[in-house]
Design a protein that fits this description.
Layout lengths: L11 H8 L14 E2 L7 E3 L5 H10 L2 E5 L5 H15 L3 H6 L6 E4 L21 E6 L11 H32 L10 E13 L9 E6 L5 E6 L5 E5 L2 E4 L7 E5 L1 H6 L9 E4 L6 E10 L4 E2 L7 E2 H14 L16
Parallel strand pairs: 1-10, 2-3
Antiparallel strand pairs: 3-11, 4-5, 5-6, 6-13, 7-12, 8-11, 8-13, 9-10, 9-12, 14-15
Helix pairs in contact: 2-5, 3-5
Bound molecules: 2-oxoglutaric acid and fe (ii) ion.
The site of fe (ii) ion (FE2) has 4 residues, from loops.
Length: about 325
């Protein structure tokens, strides 16, 4: 059940579903067991960056922990504090953020900006989020000093993330030894955006996903999760829990990076499990190729990120899920 004290901060549909748990019996195949033991996710040190270790992690796992990333721990904890504060605002106040460059969403936003296109409550992500396009953050005007502080923290965090993503991308391009045509497709810092998430706790339902399984469409995604945990990656046919480690970031290879690398790097499938007792927050950064850049690969038809994104949107609307890179395989049906 959602916390009573905080009830007015949740979207009305969540309050309703929480009161009648049977409606959210998902078909998300949560029966498969998930190991709660810590898994040996590779660790990459940004200060002493080894191309070999980085390459191995991207090829075998598609995900790694990043240490010595240069973000002060005090900034990370301030950010988490402010994310919690922001989500604890009333549902109406969060909806009002919509008028700023920020946008507030909940459930499964691709399908349902307003919650209208849900097929019952099946497959609904049990989360609320705030989308922050970093280049537009200076336009965020507020009279509320707490939100003003929040903007500053986000701006500072965004600068760190741009630096980290660029450093990692350049190292990956070196590690892959791409031919000039492949390396034409480059990371565009101005595409970077941050998503803040809150996954409400859900003690009354046994089987529930906060976010359904997916791969990210980005070049790289960088996740900063709190100590509650719940993020799982799919490897060797099983779901593995990614235990949170404080002051450590998690970097995912996205679909665009997989395509550029000729499938040498893997865009890792992942999902988020809801915690029964505690709500979880995370701060995720995504970055993409330059708009007009064509992805050239021996495995895929040439395509731009804009075309990819359009295809994902069409598939999500018509099929209810993302097909992803398979659509662009050289031998894919037209
Ligand atoms: O909240 C998380 O830890 C992961 C979120 C995620 O996978 C995404 O936004 O694509
Ligand atoms: Fe993701």
């Amino acid at each position: 059940m959602l916390e009573m004290s905080n009830l007015e901060s949740y979207p009305p549909l969540f309050r309703h579903l929480s009161a009648s748990p049977d409606e959210l019996t998902t078909n998300n195949s949560m029966e498969d067991s998930s190991s709660s033991s810590s898994v040996p996710i590779p660790v990459v040190d940004l200060q002493c960056l080894s191309l070999e270790k980085l390459g191995e992690a991207c090829k075998e796992w598609g995900v790694f922990r990043l240490v010595n990333h240069g973000i002060p721990p005090s900034l990370l904890s301030k950010l988490e504090e402010h994310v919690r504060m922001l989500f604890s605002l009333s549902f109406e106040s969060k909806q009002a953020l919509q008028t700023n460059p920020l946008s507030y969403f909940w459930g499964t936003p691709v399908l349902t900006p307003s919650g209208a296109a849900l097929r019952g409550a099946l497959n609904m992500n049990w989360l609320e989020g705030i989308n922050v396009p970093l280049t537009q953050l200076p336009l965020f005007q507020t009279e509320d000093p707490r939100l003003e502080d929040f903007r500053h923290f986000l701006e500072e965090y965004g600068r760190h993330l741009s630096r980290i993503a660029t450093t990692l991308f350049e190292a990956m391009v070196k590690n892959l030894n791409l031919c000039p045509k492949q390396s034409e497709c480059s990371l565009d810092e101005s595409t970077g955006f941050i998503r803040l998430y809150r996954y409400p706790s859900r003690s009354s339902v046994n089987k529930s996903l906060g976010m359904m399984e997916h791969t990210d469409s980005s070049l790289l995604s960088i996740v900063n999760q709190d100590q509650v945990g719940g993020l799982e990656i799919f490897k060797d046919n099983q779901w593995l829990l990614v235990n949170p480690i404080s002051d450590t970031l998690l970097v995912h290879i996205g679909d665009m990076m997989q395509a550029i690398s000729d499938d040498q790097y893997m865009s890792v499938k992942h999902r988020v499990r809801v915690n029964k007792q505690e709500e979880r927050v995370s701060v995720c950064y995504f970055v993409f190729p330059e708009k007009g850049n064509v992805v050239h690969s021996s495995k895929y038809k040439p395509f731009t990120y804009t075309e990819f994104q359009q295809q994902v949107l069409n598939d999500t609307k018509t099929l209810g899920y993302k097909v992803g890179l398979q659509r662009f395989k050289l031998d894919a049906p037209v």
